[in-house]
Amino acid sequence: MKKVGILTSGGDCQGLNAAIRGVAKSLYEEFNDEVEIYGIRDGYSGLIHGNYTKMEKRDFSGILTLGGTILGTSRQPFKMMRVIDEETSLDKVKAMKDNYKKMGLDCLVILGGNGTHKSANMLSEEGLNVVSMPKTIDNDVWGTDMTFGFYSAVDIATQVIDCIHTTATSHGRVFIVEIMGHKVGWLNLYAGIAGGADVILLPEIPYDIEKVADVLEKRERGGKQFTILAVAEGAISKQEAAMKKKEFKASRAAMQYPSVSYRLAAELESISGHEVRVTVPGHFQRGGSPCAYDRVLCTRFGAAAARLIKDERYGFMTGLRNGEIVAVPLGEVAGKLKKVPVDCDEIVAARDMGISFGD
Ligand code: F6P
Q1: What would the DSSP string read from start to end of 329-353?
Q2: pLDDT at residue 15 above 90?
């Protein structure tokens, strides 16, 4: 009997249940039902504290379209993993290894993003058999062209821009839509292009406020009364990009606005005299059913993870490269960030048709 544990860690996203279903159903097929699956609660927290349950085959039915994660999730910062808790003297790494042994696992399947993969690699280096799948709306996991959750979030963020468009045109207003994505601009780039934004600001391309204001003026001169700016939550100005990390952190801590979009709105209002409104869809972007693309991707990743387990190939993340499913060594994934290349085709195409990146 093969014993496999599954956990979902970090921020939730669309497709987590579809991926859980994908790997579980494939495992039952691969091992002719000779497999026991343990659902570990709330990410690494459940592995640390021994919070898990044996799942039944039926638990994996009817969850393909379900948002969130049936296993629950939590954020357990990697940098704290090896820190012994002062009050309880809890050694988290030892506790995870002990619980893995207690469950009698042959393998641990981990679904997560960047931070999760650092810990997944650490557990693999500690001798646990680990197979992982890349999830996040940010699409910033190194080693895969696509993470699941990304396209579903792109659809939602695009719908937000679409809806804002109608109000912006009716009122002749300037609107900023702030899109998630943490330190990278994938989500904002795709939603911005798909939603027909006039300005797209990404962390990878620091903006010049005067250049952004120029766009408003140019559009007004051309008879356009409204402008839509898609702004990544991680967008930074050219001045900020020139700062040292510490200086940047201090200047952001002192910022009197809740986010970069509100600062941008205030600056644009004062330069251009336009009324600027801000919309922040926030966690809305991670909610609800996975889109069709993500359902297929989760199914493919799940089946690939089950194959790796069948072949006893551990220490890999399933990835997508040039349309093919690949196995990427965890050691190559951990600690890297997949940023948007500033000369990628999407940006070139957007620039070609007049979209401004504020630079
Ligand atoms: O990583 C996914 C993400 O939604 C980011 O885009 C965002 O910066 C972050 O998580 C928000 O984290 P939390 O859900 O902890 O507020």
Answers
A1: EHHHHTT-B-PPPTT-HHHHHHHHT
A2: yes
pLDDT in tens, 48-93: 999 999 999 999 999 999 999 999 999 999 999 999 988 899 999 9
Q: Which amino acid would we find at residue 119? A: S
Q: Do domains 2-149+290-333 and 152-286 have the same CATH topology?
A: yes
Tokens 């966690």 belong to 283
Q: Which fold has domain 2-149+290-333?
A: Rossmann fold (3.40.50)
Q: What is the pLDDT of residues 119-169, one digit of tens each?
A: 999 999 999 999 999 999 999 999 999 999 999 999 999 999 999 999 999
CA distances to 95, 207, 232, 292 from 210, rounded to whole Å, are: 54, 9, 18, 41
Ligand 1 atom closest to the CA of 138, numbered from 1: 6
> Residue 209 contacts by C-beta under 8 Å, 6 or more apart in sequence?
237, 264, 267, 268, 271, 358
Known catalytic membership, residue 138: yes
Q: Would the CB of 12 count as within 6 Å of ligand 1? A: no
Report the pLDDT value the prediction gives residue 85, as an integer from 0 to 100.
87
Mean pLDDT over all residues of the chain? Answer: 97
Residues 271 and 215: their CA atoms lie apart, in Å, by 12
Q: Please tell me which residue in 42, 138, 155, 198 is annotated as part of the active site.
A: 138
pTM (two decimals): 0.97
Domains in the chain: boundaries: 2-149+290-333, 152-286
Provide the 8-state DSSP code for 70. T
Q: How many angstroms is it from 170 CA to the middle of ligand 1? A: 32
Residues 152-286, CATH architecture: 3-Layer(aba) Sandwich (3.40)
